[in-house]
Amino acid sequence: MTFLVLLFVFTVPLSTSAQEQERMVPQENMQVQLSYAPLVKRVAPAVVNIYTKRAIRASFRSPFMDDPFFGLFFDQNLFGGRMRQYLESSLGSGVIVSEGGLVVTNAHVIRGADEISVGLKDGNEYTANVMLQDEASDLALLRIKPDEEGQSFPYVTLRPSETLEVGDLVLAIGNPFGVGQTVTSGIISAKGRSSLDINDYNFFIQTDAAINPGNSGGPLVAMDGRVVGINTAIFSRSGGSMGLGFAIPSEMVASVIAAEMHGQVSDRGIIRPWLGVQAQDITSDIADNLGVKAYGGALVSDLHTASPFGAAGLKVGDVILSVNDRPIRNAAELKFLMATVPLGKEASVDIWRKGKKNKLSVKAMAPPDIPAREEAELTGNHILRGAVIANLNPAVSVELGMPVDEDSGVVVVKAPKGFFSRTLAPGDILVSVNGQEITNPREVDKALTQPTQRGIELVVKRKGSLMRLYLR
Question: Which of 14, 26, 57, 338 has its CA 20 to 30 A from that of 74?
Answer without folding.
Answer: 57
